[in-house]
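A quick aside before the break. I want you to see a complete sequence-to-structure record at least once, exactly as it would be stored in a machine-readable document. Don't worry about memorizing anything.
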Amino acid sequence: MITKLADPQQVTAGELVSTGSIGLASGQVYRGIALARDTLVPNINVALEHSAGFYARAWLTRVELAGLAYPSDESTWQTLLDVGYLWQLQSHWTVSVAHHWYHYSENTLGSDRDYREWSASLDYGAYLTLNYAYTNDLWGRDVRQDVTTLSGRWPFTQRLVGEAAVGWVSQHGQSGDSYSFLRLNAGCVIRDWSFQLQFHATHNVDGYYRKSRIGNQWVAQVDWHW
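That is the input. The structure line, written in tokens, reads:
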């Protein structure tokens, strides 16, 4: 998922806020696995947040699933829709739960790649997040995936932001694999623009994913926010 560098927007009582971004990246890495490499990847993000705690988010990008979901080599549009609710526990702590729909524009070999996922997060302000996500049908292949991610972010200055995340992935079913991943991100925010440089690494991947999809990877990205 695209890392959001700007601080969360404050929502007053009874207010519905819309935000979004449009950008271009040099690749796409999700949970340590490259969904697109050596190609320019467009992406669009839109979010609606209500002061009562409800939110909906949509994300559109281009990915290549050859060797992941199915053997075909064509790229496809991936649409991710999130619907969730956020509880304010104390002044800095929040808990949220969400349901995610992953949809792919091209489904080959008579198979459906689309799948759903549940997640829960515990956040300390905009600085620390513990997230758990679960699906039992990854890419429509009867593969269960459990993902736990711990991420932290900090502002070096008013414009420079850093982020680090470490995650643990466990897969079972038709094809199994368990591994860990690391994500480091440095970004600069200038008015409505953000510029990011991401580093991704995986560890202990057992063979479910091709070597070209794992390992150390760099991604540069630019976004315009509204």
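Two observations worth writing down. Confidence is low (pLDDT under 50) at residues 1-11. The CA atoms of residues 77 and 105 lie 5 Å apart. We'll return to this after the break.
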